[in-house]
Design goal:
Elements (H helix, E strand, L loop, with lengths): L13 E5 L7 E7 L2 E10 L13 E8 L11 H4 L4 H15 L4 H4 L3 E10 L4 H23 L11 E9 L2 E4 L3 H4 L4 E8 L4 E8 L6 H26 L1
Parallel strand pairs: 4-5
Antiparallel strand pairs: 1-2, 2-3, 3-5, 6-7, 6-8, 8-9
Length: 237
């Protein structure tokens, strides 16, 4: 029995509320169970120096957790003067994943920055950030299309992410914190709407895993991502 009472192949309740901020070109609040992440997309008519005069755009991301997004207060990273390694790794992952579904030539020489701020954490924050980040990106690009600033849609597909793992000896979908903190195997799966893989992060957290178990987790991830894509479609409809 999972702590939440969910079936092994059930994701948490998903909610994606679009256009939650006034100033960002695209925004949403995504909730995956008790994990809540505010995602905003900001358009800039510039690119990083290494892309100047290439005709290519850029999508990047920043990620952070509010001090009381967890059980005990965390010190703001700004107070220590530097980001933690985990933060840097996650925001690079988000940007890398989102670029996989963007035609940077069609985007043109402009940059879209996706900011992902964790309001409340209960496992799977990076997956929620990627899934919600796509919605914010989609809404920002819609404004470019409506204004005629881009000729063709630079977003080539949906993109979503979900965690899977082996908890109490069983493959399970969409781990919450109670499962994530004690899972023998933990993995994050990022897929396009077509089902093609963008990135897989898997590690043994106390027990090794077999090829068969990895395939079982991938099958669960495909099911979970299909449900997340359906939620994305409803949010941007």
């Amino acid at each position: 029995m999972r702590p939440s009472g969910r079936n092994l192949d059930s994701i948490r309740t998903i909610s994606i509320e679009p256009d939650v901020t006034k100033h960002a070109e695209g925004s949403c609040m995504i909730s995956m169970g008790d994990t809540k992440v505010l995602c905003t997309a900001s358009l800039e008519d510039r690119t990083p120096p290494f892309l100047r005069n290439t005709g290519l755009g850029w999508v990047t991301a920043e990620y952070g957790m509010l001090p009381r997004s967890t059980n005990t207060r965390m010190r703001r990273e700004a107070a220590s003067g530097k980001q933690q390694g985990r933060t840097v790794e996650i925001q690079r992952l988000i940007g890398r994943a989102l670029r996989a579904c963007v035609d940077r030539s069609a985007l043109g020489e402009r940059q879209i920055t996706i900011d992902c701020d964790v309001i409340q954490a209960d496992g799977g924050t990076r997956c929620a950030a990627i899934t919600g980040g796509w919605v914010a990106l989609r809404l920002a690009v819609n404004k470019l299309l409506k204004a005629g600033d881009v000729v063709s849609d630079p977003i080539t597909d949906h993109l979503a992410a979900v965690s899977c793992g082996i908890y109490a000896g069983q493959p399970v979908l969409d781990l919450d914190y109670a499962e994530d903190s004690t899972a023998g195997v933990d993995g994050n799966f990022i897929l396009l709407g077509t089902g093609r893989l963008v990135e897989v992060q898997m590690s043994a957290e106390g027990a090794t895993f077999s090829r068969m178990e990895m395939d079982q987790l991938l099958n669960l991830a495909e099911k979970g991502v299909s449900e997340l894509v359906a939620a994305q479609k409803a949010a941007v409809a």
